[in-house]
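Researcher: Structure for this, please.
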Amino acid sequence: MKAAVIDRGVIQIQDVEKPAPKDNEVLVRIRATTICAADYRLRKFGWIIGLWRRGKPLILGMELAGTVESVGKTAARFRPGDQVFGGTGFKFGAHAEYACAPESRVELKPANMTLEEAAAVMFGGLTALCFLRQANIRAGQDVLVYGASGSVGVFAVQLAKHFGARVTGVCSTANLDLVKSLGADNVIDYTKEDFSKAGRIYDMIFDTVGKAGFSRSLKSLKRGGPYVVIAPSGGLLSIVGDTFRQMWISLRGAAKMVGGLPRPVPGDLSFLKGLIEAGELRTVIDRRYSLDQIGEAFRYAEAGHKKGHVVILVEPAVAASSGPRA
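Model: Predicted structure, token format:
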């Protein structure tokens, strides 16, 4: 099968061995995958990971949508021909024609989404859901989402609204209409206005890109309120400094720091699917690329100005022997 292999940070399309599902896995013939933040951050350390993997191909990609090709011995939820969406998690491997995923990490595709749209749900949707839940989101709260037009931000805005919050989205000029269309009650153009100088106090600040700034955020956050930071703001030294700063903020009781890795629980992906089919949740696709164009797609995603998601379309392989489940 064809796959986008990372070798010392360089992406090449290569022919690699088609994977076989473990007992609890499904093998998916991929129609669409994405480039998410975990992919392009990990690519920077590709040479280190390559040494650790001792020459085994490094194939990135956490999200996928496609058709079940085969199932493992104990996998009972799906059958060949089912159209599914979800992901591989930190196993990666989805930038390819086929990938294996635990059956617990995939669901039947939402009826009102294409496979391309469904591929762009898991990473942003589960990340936003997990951290909003960890921050104890409640109806009536005022929530500021910084980076509201990114892959996590678009879901954070919509999910916060679903839970009954009043949402202010911070984004660039070009994305104001998009964030309004997602349901934000207010939008702030960060190129023209500093959210911390408006005098408004929020019950929660949800920083999806690590750029809201500690001093500005604490100035605008209710004392002791949840302050969600889900992305590093710079290089290794900056990450270390931010970590100590967050510890100090927590010790002082200035804010409840929320971050780390998202911890989804069984049923979370099904919950998102239900909201999608109810018309309460949608994804945003900025650009689409073919698998052969994945190098260009990485460069665009890494520039940091994408709206929602960058989707990689994988050409259909040999048709499955049976159609999708009715």
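Researcher: Any notable elements?
Model: The chain has two domains: 2-121+283-313, 123-258. The mean pLDDT is 90.
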